[in-house]
Amino acid sequence: MPGRIVIAGASLGGLRAAEHLRAAGWKGRITVVGDEPHMPYNRPPLSKEALAGKTSFESLAFRPRAAAADVEWRLGTAVTRARPAGRLVELEGGERLPFDGLVVATGTRPRRLRCEGPVVGRYTVRTLSDAEELSAALTRPGVRVVVVGAGFIGCEVAATAIGLGVTEVTVVDPEPLPMLRPLGELLARALRERHEARGVRFALGQGVAAYSGEDRVTGVVLTGGAVLPADVVVEAVGTVSNTEWLEGNGLDLSDGVLCDSALRVGGLPYVVAVGDVARFPNARYDDVPRRVEHWSIPGDTARHAARTLVAALTGAAPVPAPFAPLPSFWSDQYEYRVQSFGAPVLGTADARVLDGDPAGDVLVGYHSGGRLVGVVALGGPSAAAAAARHRAELLRQPALTAQPGEET
Amino acid sequence: MKVVVDMNKCQDHGQCVFAAPEVFQLDEGAHLVFVGEPDDSLREQVEDAADVCPLQAIAIED
């Protein structure tokens, strides 16, 4: 009985969900609804090549698989409400779409600072239009840039601004080092030195108290009292999950949407979630549900969730084993790449240099209970290749939660 | 099946190597080399490789 699957969210997770539903044997209708006017496009270049003007924004569009050619795309339209129990979503404008299965793929949006002061001159990097606006602002002569947030996106934006010839770039963060939480002190320190060698200044250990200026931002007032002159402020301070449309249904939306190990939502067999809005346990590590904002996750979750959903709706596919992806992420800053495999964040307390030197190409291993749980390379292509050689070892290891002899 | 890689886009991430090791490899200098016309039995692997390319540089031309 082919019916309809509605996919709420038309970015990478929504696209991959549509493709994997077809791959898993779903013959019914697939309708993808998304609030952006564009077909799905690749976001990582928005803080790097595309922001620097080296890649056209048009070239970022994904090429959907041929099997997904009959998917209906409802773009420029937000899903405003859902009644999972009634198998219905409501769209902007009031239209109601009934569904047999629902994929939650609405992703996240940038968290904004709630500070006093002007709004003009404050930017984020999430969408094509965000990046187009910021790119134009960064190429104005003599511009002074303050990046709020020393995570990967903030540091990538700082590196891109330096590459564009901006001479005043300051990165602000309450943490004592950039990218400290995901990478640990050893690599955070090494990355800070590389940024400083290129002229980036850091204002660490303090946050933003307010923005100064009349009609537009002219400065950033730090919690320590200092004022950093600024024409452009980039806020890269994390994300907020787009789950408001799911409210009122008794779902756990405390941080994204809570899923079980099959990526089902709220115990409903016909509702699944994918991408960075999904908070799921990774059977490879433990039973703690987490949201993961890596680029690889929309693809990994979509494949798994599609199988779960098709199994529930048609019985044509077996219910998959618990979700246990090997996480992987990268970040390009200047000519250096940070390449990670596994879950370094679980082992930052026991990080050791496995190869090389933090001043040059280096490979760091992260351990939990003495066991390798992640590797991160910093440097050129050969460092990344060294990290990749540890990937097989990370994949082979039994789940941290597994009992002796248990297959995962 | 014909595989085309836009080498202007490729940045040697190597994700395709994990997805389809019979088609994609990194050479000694960690640069991508690949089989241009792999057997059709590898199509699913190559589709996965195209999916996971961070630069979306891999295309399959039938």
From TrEMBL, chain A:
<feature type="domain" description="Reductase C-terminal">
    <location>
        <begin position="329"/>
        <end position="388"/>
    </location>
</feature>
<protein>
    <recommendedName>
        <fullName>Ferredoxin reductase</fullName>
    </recommendedName>
</protein>
<keyword id="KW-0274">FAD</keyword>
<dbReference type="GO" id="GO:0005737">
    <property type="term" value="C:cytoplasm"/>
</dbReference>
<dbReference type="InterPro" id="IPR016156">
    <property type="entry name" value="FAD/NAD-linked_Rdtase_dimer_sf"/>
</dbReference>
<keyword id="KW-0285">Flavoprotein</keyword>
<dbReference type="Pfam" id="PF14759">
    <property type="entry name" value="Reductase_C"/>
</dbReference>
<dbReference type="InterPro" id="IPR036188">
    <property type="entry name" value="FAD/NAD-bd_sf"/>
</dbReference>
<dbReference type="InterPro" id="IPR023753">
    <property type="entry name" value="FAD/NAD-binding_dom"/>
</dbReference>
<dbReference type="Pfam" id="PF07992">
    <property type="entry name" value="Pyr_redox_2"/>
</dbReference>
<dbReference type="InterPro" id="IPR028202">
    <property type="entry name" value="Reductase_C"/>
</dbReference>
<dbReference type="InterPro" id="IPR050446">
    <property type="entry name" value="FAD-oxidoreductase/Apoptosis"/>
</dbReference>
<keyword id="KW-0560">Oxidoreductase</keyword>
<feature type="domain" description="FAD/NAD(P)-binding">
    <location>
        <begin position="4"/>
        <end position="289"/>
    </location>
</feature>
<dbReference type="GO" id="GO:0016651">
    <property type="term" value="F:oxidoreductase activity, acting on NAD(P)H"/>
</dbReference>
Automatic annotation (TrEMBL), chain B:
<keyword id="KW-0003">3Fe-4S</keyword>
<dbReference type="Pfam" id="PF13370">
    <property type="entry name" value="Fer4_13"/>
</dbReference>
<dbReference type="InterPro" id="IPR001080">
    <property type="entry name" value="3Fe4S_ferredoxin"/>
</dbReference>
<keyword id="KW-0411">Iron-sulfur</keyword>
<protein>
    <recommendedName>
        <fullName>Ferredoxin</fullName>
    </recommendedName>
</protein>
<keyword id="KW-0813">Transport</keyword>
<keyword id="KW-0408">Iron</keyword>
<keyword id="KW-0479">Metal-binding</keyword>
<comment type="function">
    <text>Ferredoxins are iron-sulfur proteins that transfer electrons in a wide variety of metabolic reactions.</text>
</comment>
<dbReference type="InterPro" id="IPR051269">
    <property type="entry name" value="Fe-S_cluster_ET"/>
</dbReference>
<dbReference type="GO" id="GO:0009055">
    <property type="term" value="F:electron transfer activity"/>
</dbReference>
<dbReference type="GO" id="GO:0051538">
    <property type="term" value="F:3 iron, 4 sulfur cluster binding"/>
</dbReference>
<keyword id="KW-0249">Electron transport</keyword>
<dbReference type="GO" id="GO:0005506">
    <property type="term" value="F:iron ion binding"/>
</dbReference>
